[in-house]
Amino acid sequence: MKTASLAALLASLVLAAAPLRAQDRPATPAPVASTVEQDSAAVTLTAQEPAAAEHAAPEGEHEAGPVDIITPHITNGDHMEIPYWKFPFFKEIELPHWKPIVIGGLSFDMSPSKHVVFLLLGSTILFLMMVLAARSLRRAAVKGEAPKGGANAIEAMILYIRNEVILPNVGHHGEGFVPYLLTAFFFILTLNLIGLVPYGSTATGNISVTATLAIMTFITVEVAGVRAQGWGYLNTLFYWNNDLPIVLRPVLFLIMSPVEMIGKLTKPFALAIRLFANMTAGHIVVLALMGLIFSFAGPLSAAPLFMSVLIMVLELFVAFLQAFIFTLLSSVFIGQIRESHH
After folding, report:
1. CA 188 to CA 202: how far, in whole Å?
2. What DSSP element (H or E) covers 94?
3. Preceding amide of 88 cis, omega within 30
4. pTM of the predicted model, to two decimals?
């Protein structure tokens, strides 16, 4: 069930649009100058050619400009950075661009973007990690020993999230929601951690990714409400209080029904914005502090460097915290709609 839940998460995250590429234009020909002006320009150009040749970069190489090591962690695009042995120690590669798929007059560009690549990378890492942990736990159980190493840590995390976060908030007979919520927790955590390593990119810093995760949770919440309440689910959309006088019921129905519907939409909106903003803000703060290193001279430059290290440590904590909060709020929303008929 975890694999099916992970496949459902990835299926809706693959759409990405590659930006339009600018086309080179031929230079506009200059007006024909007089013979004297042409001769003068030729002499000047001949005198400048040796100097220009001395400063020209060797063929196949280009001069190194300012190196941005923070922004690529949060931005998306049709290229990505890979390790390279020459300064600035990375090299940009173009991702493949596929022919758009046309369905009913609508064009869908399925070309992979950088964040799509890291979504697939994160899911692959998560899948392999869980399979290896499961095999290690099975071998330990056969030998009658306690699990060791990473398998023991993963088992402890799974048991804590299941027993202390999901089941108490989802309510009785909520085991069916455990696979999805556990998959969402580890999937978000993996993507957050990938964004902290060199040459990585934070896919959860893309509002499209967080919005898709929030929409999937929204669908799960509403389906849980329909299954738990049946026709009573309509009470979560349309306000009708039988305890009020008959005259006030239609009035409050017209006033409170839009409020109930807006309240449903604010939940996934809050999930999407919270995860997106927190994962983006940390990298921006690090970028600002790294910029201060070059603004200060001498020993003062050590202060922003130290602060940058502290922010990166905080980012490591935030990576776990945001995955935990997303899972916790999703569990609370499911539990609320399942118990709202009591």
Report:
1. 10
2. strand 90-94
3. yes
4. 0.76
